[in-house]
Task: inverse folding
């Protein structure tokens, strides 16, 4: 690698020649503030917070886009630099909606943090404020333009990474605004509700639709039997909301907190992931053996499903008809569980704790009510659960050991790995391989499907079958993969797609990490490592060996793919227009 010598704040440094000044500074542990910068996603030098003084340059330069060169001399903290940053920040704050006490991002707001770090005591400029309407029509995402600082991170995430492009900058100069085309609501455009825009927003301009009041109300209702289920990715991220290291497993703390909040039962969505593998694995084998529509494409990610309905309606028949795990669980709780416990299903209120904002949209789908009632009544994100725990005054770090409830409280390691990209494929292979061979297989870790490469392609030789599979995470990668399939360039038996980069571990409802963390730590890998650790620690690691699943089929569903299973655990999808005419 080519290297160059530079001087930064009187320190002699030797850095890679392809670095920017900002990258060189962070390698040397020299702090330069940023707002718009997001590594590899939004490197546009727009906010001007990262300006530095370059010897020989007539003006201050944005360090996030200024390349290093041999002999470059940089000052990151001169009086001119500090004053420029303060002026820039005060100008941003001059027309910002500064209702920090009631903002969902208070204490995690990057703008708030910079104001403290730069010692902003007063704002010298009185900006012209406009009161713009809040877009809260989506069941998943709220957009508040009054808090937007025009950093364009959300725009870059939506356009470059997810390639959905439903938000952008409109207007010019002071009238510039980030919004959807034609001034439409996010609910009126082909937004997938993935929430990746929320995770990169430095302020409170984008947030999830808060449904905690609905849950508090249900918990206070003595006529309701309120139960909760938690997704695999939640337990490896929730701790971050309480100051724990990224990737800390907090399963027991989470269960104990949910019990103290008042839920009658706390269930594990991993169990329903095992159920999904039984149904989806059976569906895959049936299509392969009987000439069904291939490739079979997974249907666990509601953001991906909505994307497919908008962008690839010709592939809807390729989608697995299986509901996502938490929706399956909701249907089971309002049928099998209701019968066993002697509870009127109309009195069972199911809450799902998910890493995903798109799950809120999914729970509102009319077709997901196979018992005559919504499979799931309310979806809360990981962040919303953290807010409830804090509101209840629960000390999350000091709680007794707790386990999930039975029935349906037992899950396999295969169910756990659903939270990481490639996890559904690996879980399916563990079961499909044994069904085809008719014998137990010890080597169950399919390492070739793991990792965060944009698109992974694998050929796995099973008993009499060479299974061709592909895995994509992030909707931009999904588009690349599907275009190859539609054109006939590629052919597979099975495709796994997750809407969010890295899979559910970095879903739109997970704890938000600031740009300096996201830029230098790969959240996908850190959280996924904890998922695989959970898998290794479990005694049962194959879905078909889960006793709870065996009992469910013996007592209720008879067998995977049965009539009752299709009635309760499967669904259908519908093509959607992108911009419907009014």
Result:
């Amino acid at each position: 690698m080519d290297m160059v010598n530079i001087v930064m704040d009187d320190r002699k440094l030797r850095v890679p020649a392809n670095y920017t000044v900002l990258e060189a500074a962070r390698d040397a542990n020299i702090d330069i503030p940023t707002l718009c910068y997001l590594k590899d996603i939004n490197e546009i030098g727009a906010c001007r917070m990262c300006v530095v003084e370059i010897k020989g340059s007539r003006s201050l330069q944005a360090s996030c886009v200024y390349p290093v060169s041999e002999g470059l001399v940089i000052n990151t903290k001169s009086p001119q630099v500090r004053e420029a940053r303060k002026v820039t920040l005060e100008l941003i704050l001059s027309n910002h909606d500064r209702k920090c006490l009631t903002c969902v991002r208070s204490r995690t707001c990057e703008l708030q943090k910079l104001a403290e770090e730069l010692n902003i005591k007063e704002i010298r400029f009185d900006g012209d404020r406009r009161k713009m309407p809040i877009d809260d029509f989506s069941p998943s995402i709220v957009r508040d333009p009054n808090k937007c600082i025009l950093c364009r991170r959300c725009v870059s995430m939506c356009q470059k990474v997810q390639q959905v492009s439903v938000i952008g900058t409109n207007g010019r100069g002071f009238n510039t605004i980030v919004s959807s085309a034609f001034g439409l609501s996010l609910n009126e455009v082909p937004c997938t509700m993935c929430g990746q825009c929320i995770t990169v927003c430095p302020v409170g301009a984008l947030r999830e639709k808060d449904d905690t009041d609905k849950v508090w109300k249900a918990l206070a209702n003595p006529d309701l039997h309120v139960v909760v289920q938690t997704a695999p990715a939640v337990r490896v991220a929730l701790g971050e909301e309480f100051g724990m290291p990224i990737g800390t497993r907090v399963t027991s703390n989470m269960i104990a907190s949910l019990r103290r909040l008042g839920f009658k039962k706390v269930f594990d969505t991993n169990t329903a992931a095992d159920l999904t593998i039984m149904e989806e694995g059976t569906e895959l084998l049936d299509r392969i053996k009987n000439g069904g529509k291939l490739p079979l494409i997974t249907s666990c990610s509601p953001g991906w499903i909505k994307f497919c309905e908008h962008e690839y309606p010709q592939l809807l028949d390729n989608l697995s008809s299986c509901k996502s795990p938490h929706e399956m669980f909701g249907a089971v709780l309002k049928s099998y569980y209701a019968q066993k416990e002697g509870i009127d299903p109309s009195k069972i209120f199911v809450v799902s704790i998910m890493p995903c904002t798109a799950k809120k949209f999914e729970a509102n789908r009319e077709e997901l009510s196979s018992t005559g009632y919504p499979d799931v009544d309310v979806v809360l994100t990981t962040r919303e659960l953290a807010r409830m725990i804090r509101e209840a005054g629960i000390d999350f770090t000091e709680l007794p050991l707790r386990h999930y409830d039975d029935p349906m409280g037992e899950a396999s390691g295969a169910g756990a790995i659903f939270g990481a990209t490639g996890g559904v494929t690996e879980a399916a292979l563990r079961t499909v391989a044994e069904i085809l061979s008719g014998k137990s297989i010890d080597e169950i870790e399919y390492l070739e499907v793991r990792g965060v490469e944009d698109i992974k392609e694998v050929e796995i030789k099973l008993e009499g079958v060479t299974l061709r599979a592909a895995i994509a995470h992030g909707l931009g990668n999904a588009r690349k993969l599907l275009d190859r399939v539609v054109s006939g360039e590629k052919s597979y038996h099975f495709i796994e797609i997750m809407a969010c980069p890295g899979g559910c571990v970095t879903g739109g409802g997970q704890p938000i990490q600031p740009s300096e963390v996201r830029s230098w730590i790969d959240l996908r890998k850190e959280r996924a490592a904890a998922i695989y650790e959970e898998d290794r620690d479990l005694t049962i690691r194959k879905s078909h060996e889960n006793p709870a699943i065996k009992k469910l089929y013996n007592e209720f569903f008879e067998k995977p793919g049965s009539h009752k299973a299709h009635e309760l655990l499967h669904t259908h999808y519908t093509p959607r227009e992108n911009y419907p005419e009014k």
In short: The CA atoms of residues 299 and 305 lie 6 Å apart. The mean pLDDT is 94. The chain is about 35% helix and 15% strand. The radius of gyration is 25 Å.
